[in-house]
Amino acid sequence: MAVKGKQEKRVRRHLRVRKKVLGTPERPRLCVFRSLNHIYAQVVDDNAKVTLAHASSTEPALKETQKSGGNIAAAQAVGSWSPPRRRWRKASKRLYLTRAAICTTEE
To answer: How far is 39 from 37, CA to CA, in rounded Å?
Structure first.
């Protein structure tokens, strides 16, 4: 059996999870991506292939308050800043959490 590279292993894990986890209007999918410098989150309805809400540490309002966009404080700020968005608040009652390399609505 050939040794698989890191990238190929990551893609296979991602596909395995995405086969089982689909966001619906009743229970959307929360997709979180963390790079070294920033954190991004979005709520996705996979049935309609629509992003319901999004937040990231790159947005100007959060960028001003945070020294770094890729640390725990920035992640907490993204999580606490997003509830004022009405769609996010409605969707946040019940979510499927997925951690992905890149958050997309089409796969």
So the answer is: 7
